[in-house]
């Protein structure tokens, strides 16, 4: 089967077929590989453009036909370079979106895990018992405050007069 038909028919690894698609790590790795390949092609085209420009300068007015051909090739390479730039931007955007989606998925999983842990912690707690306990604590704090107020009042007899 040709590479093109594999691409359009979804030819991929057996591991990714069994799970219904590639994992985020596999997809990220492939996107990075594609980015590297396109970057190398960019560098190649940039050197070709420089060569064609140098050839056009070399031929200058002596051989106008060769100079024009070099400039046409340069223009063709620049068009390819522009297309590659657009493709790279699209791939970078897709890679970043995939990384963010993967991060969001992991955050969501961890939040669910934390929710289960909180549920387990609160499993043995009864809201009525907690209310009763809080009332008892409040009552005891009031008693402690009254005792503290009584102790801290002056022991002077007769300081307080009823007018």
From TrEMBL:
Membrane topology: Peripheral membrane protein
Primary location group: cytoplasm
Keywords on record: Coiled coil, Cytoplasm, Endosome, Membrane, Protein transport, Transport
Composition-biased stretches (Gly residues): 9-21
A biological process from GO: protein transport
GO cellular component: cytoplasmic side of plasma membrane; cytosol; ESCRT III complex; late endosome membrane; multivesicular body
Chain intervals for the UniProt region annotation (Disordered): 1-25
Highest taxon above the source species: Eukaryota
Pfam families xref list: Snf7
Cell compartments where the protein resides: Cytoplasm, Cytosol; Late endosome membrane
Entry annotated with the keyword Cytoplasm: yes
Gene3D superfamilies associated with the record: ESAT-6-like
Keyword check for Nuclease: no
Family indicated by similarity: Belongs to the SNF7 family.
Protein name, as recorded: CHM4C protein
Organism this protein belongs to: Chroicocephalus maculipennis
Gene (name only): Chmp4c
């Amino acid at each position: 089967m040709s590479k093109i038909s594999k691409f359009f028919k979804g030819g991929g690894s057996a591991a990714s077929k069994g799970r219904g698609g590639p994992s985020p790590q596999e997809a990220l790795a492939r996107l990075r590989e594609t980015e590297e390949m396109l970057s190398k092609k960019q560098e190649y085209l940039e050197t070709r453009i420089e060569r064609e420009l140098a050839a056009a300068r070399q031929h200058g007015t002596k051989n106008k036909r060769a100079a024009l051909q070099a400039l046409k090739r340069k223009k063709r390479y620049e068009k390819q370079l522009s297309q590659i730039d657009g493709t790279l931007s699209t791939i970078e955007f897709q890679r970043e979106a995939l990384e963010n989606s993967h991060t969001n998925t992991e955050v969501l999983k961890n939040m669910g895990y934390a929710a289960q842990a909180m549920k387990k912690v609160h499993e043995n707690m009864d809201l009525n018992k907690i209310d009763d306990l809080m009332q008892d604590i409040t009552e005891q704090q009031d008693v402690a405050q009254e005792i503290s107020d009584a102790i801290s009042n002056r022991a002077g007899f007769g300081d307080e007069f009823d007018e």
